[in-house]
What we know:
2 copies of one chain form a homodimer.
Chain A (H helix, E strand, L loop, with lengths): L5 H14 L8 E2 L1 H8 L3 H14 L10 E2 L5 H22 L5 H19 L3 H17 L4 H24 L7 H13 L2 H28 L38
Antiparallel strand pairs in A: 1-2
The first copy, chain A, binds a DNA duplex (30 and 30 nucleotides) through helix 3.
Amino acid sequence: MxxxxxxxxxxxxxxxxxxxxxxxxxxxxxxxxxxxAWGTSPMPVRAALQRLVAEGALEGExxxxxxxxxxxxxxxxxLFEVRLSLEGLAAELACPRVTAEALAQxxxxxxxxxAALQRRDIRTYLAANSRFHLALYGAxxxxxxxxxxxxxxxxVGPFFNRLFTEADLNLRLNGFxxxxxxxxxxxxxxxxxxxxxxxxxYCGQYLAGxxxxxxxxxxxxxxxxxxxxxxxxxxxxxGQSASALGIPSRAARG
Amino acid sequence: MxxxxxxxxxxxxxxxxxxxxxxxxxxxxxxxxxxxAWGTSPMPVRAALQRLVAEGALEGExxxxxxxxxxxxxxxxxLFEVRLSLEGLAAELACPRVTAEALAQxxxxxxxxxAALQRRDIRTYLAANSRFHLALYGAxxxxxxxxxxxxxxxxVGPFFNRLFTEADLNLRLNGFxxxxxxxxxxxxxxxxxxxxxxxxxYCGQYLAGxxxxxxxxxxxxxxxxxxxxxxxxxxxxxGQSASALGIPSRAARG
DNA sequence: ATCGTTGTTTTGTGATCACAGAATGTCAAT
DNA sequence: ATTGACATTCTGTGATCACAAAACAACGAT
Lengths: 254, 254
């Protein structure tokens, strides 16, 4: 996984950075900056960015810089309408195909999420949550569906992770995971789907609330450099976003 | 639409060629060939191909030529599972949002399809069919969903169109379109979804049958150059696939 | 003080070149 | 005749260069 094409590694790195919310919404990713940060030529960076644009993870108008799309209420609604449909389908398909080992892993993830919630360790919770859903959907025997779901995650990621790190959640969203596990044991595919859909709906409602809050209070602190309309005139200096990457930046040459 | 970036124009051209089934499944698209066919440098072609790979319309292993993926039963199943879910969702969402003009267009398309069927004009039928579904889904007020559906069409396209041009269809799949229109008038979203799903299922079942037939009879004539396993040793001469394009090939220079 | 204008810099895009890995084609040995 | 190794060609990938459009900043007019 570490080898392969340079552009594919850059793609993976950018993808992970996006999922971790290491880029500000609205932030412009400039080819030459990233290239110098990685110590490569602009070429593979260009390819990686174009691929992310093709997947909808980044937005780029014809002749302008590529930006990470800010989350709006409209986009959020669209995203969750599709997520509900697709992840529900994956869950339903996965039910009859899930193996004993997979089910064991799922329950282990639920346990870890419980523990993380009690420790108020959001980071670990989110990681276990991702693994839970991925392991569940992974059993659906439909790689195409899986790819689509992952591309959707990539589009929510930047917004999702950023908000969750700030928010203290006294809410219990692990109940739906437990419910899903029970339904999996029963073999009730509809119930599995319903549990996953409820999980998504619950989580989505919470995030929508946070989004509304952030929209009302337009960046009181240094955060959120760009609003929904047009990006503010904050000019980013070269190499600024380099710190957001894994910094494999081999000895800034030049 | 005709202007914009070179790579975007190439992308659109390739996309259309793919939708029209002008490329053989399994055929390898080589950068330099397409570039010389268009009279451009290999660079924008590379970008366009990579974008199509990112969307799943083409498949490409790391260091080898990009190919149009052959349709297999597994892939077909995966594709239609997702299509059913997504297009059903789009139809359901579109129902309460469809305008009077859109509905008029939909019924006009149905009429045209009827006429085309009686004339056994498959070409016109397919075009009207595309317009019908696109117009319906277009009312769903979810551009993201629309993009996903179009990318799915792009993946079925090469297979879909090729088979339909060969097959004489005495089947009546216009009934579901009519049913959808009636449900739209009633405002019964579930019924609209059901009609569209039935349409897809019916069409999919037919195509699956043809696929099975083609799989059993492995290319008795000159068609189908490559099978599912490994591509045959048919070595394509440069410029062969150029005829499949719009041939904007400006005076082969050199 | 604000807005329109102009000159400079930045930044994406396309072309050409260079390199490495894969595929193919040839030839010799069994 | 088939199979193995070897040489050649092809093809994707990355680097560097050149150009045009967009963004930015400074300036001048109202």
